[in-house]
Amino acid sequence: MRRAILFMPIAMFAAPLAAQALENHNANAPVDVEADRIEVQDRQDRAVFSGNVKVRQAGLALDAARLTVSYAGGPGQGVDIERLDAAGGVVVRSATETARGQYAIYDLNSRQITMLGGVSLEQRGNRINGGRLVIDLDTGRATVDGRSSAPAGSGIEGGTGGRVTGRFTVPQRNDQ
């Protein structure tokens, strides 16, 4: 019983952080990409961007060392982006949140961003750390767990010993 009482304040502080992460992002907006280099692999329906990659979509920004864009379509049909795979110091930002990790997968069809490898999510002075972060762009719900599911052989661990850690701001009170 005492254990539940001790953890209750943490849950109350954590709820606002997770509840609003990138809520109502327009995943249908155009995706702008810039990088030092691009390699188009038409037979595999993908393009690989490398070197100082910057992605912008509506109010969302994603920066990474490397980005693979998977798309559907063909000659004369146009290109429909389905998925973005980012690697190397990935940072995802909106006006109020910043998420960091070693890898990120942005699935435009499911409207989810999954980040792996020593992730952190910061919002209004609050910060959560873990191994994996999943953000639902429709609801804004963010889930952080302590274990990472990074690609095999990557050497990326959660960075938090398999646990989620956090630091939350506390409103300043005037003691009189």
Q: How are the SSEs ordered, and which strands pair?
A:
Layout: H1 2-19, E1 32-34, E2 37-41, E3 46-57, E4 60-74, E5 78-93, E6 97-107, E7 112-123, E8 126-136, E9 142-145, E10 165-167
Antiparallel strand pairs: 1-3, 2-3, 3-4, 4-5, 5-6, 6-7, 7-8, 8-9, 8-10
Description:
InterPro entries: LPS_export_LptA, OstA-like_N. GO terms for molecular function: glycolipid transfer activity. Residues 144-176 are annotated as: Disordered. This is OstA family protein. Pfam families: LptD_N. There is one protein chain. Strands 1, 2, 3, 4, 5, 6, 7, 8, 9 and 10 form a ten-stranded antiparallel sheet that branches. The chain has one helix spanning 2-19; strands spanning 32-34, 37-41, 46-57, 60-74, 78-93, 97-107, 112-123, 126-136, 142-145, 165-167. The chain is elongated. It has one helix and ten strands. Helices cover 10% and strands 52% of the residues. It is mostly beta strands and 176 residues long. Mean pLDDT is 81; it is low at 1-19 and 156-160. It has a domain at 2-25 and 76-167: lipopolysaccharide transport protein A fold (Sandwich). It starts with a helix and ends in a 9-residue tail after the last strand.
In short:
By secondary structure, the protein is mostly beta strands.
Instruction: Give the total of beta strands.
Output: 10
Largest sheet composition: 10 strands, antiparallel
Share of helix, binned: 10-25%
Kindly report how far apart the N and C termini lie: 32 Å
Kindly report the average pLDDT value. 81
If classified by CATH, what would the architecture of the domain at 2-25 and 76-167 be? Sandwich
Order of helices and strands: HEEEEEEEEEE
Total helical segments: 1
Structural class designation: mainly beta
Weakly predicted, low-confidence segments: 1-19, 156-160
Overall radius of gyration? 18 Å
| Beta fraction | over 45%
CATH topology of the domain at 2-25 and 76-167: lipopolysaccharide transport protein A fold
CATH class of the domain at 2-25 and 76-167: Mainly Beta
From the spread of the alpha carbons, the general shape counts as elongated
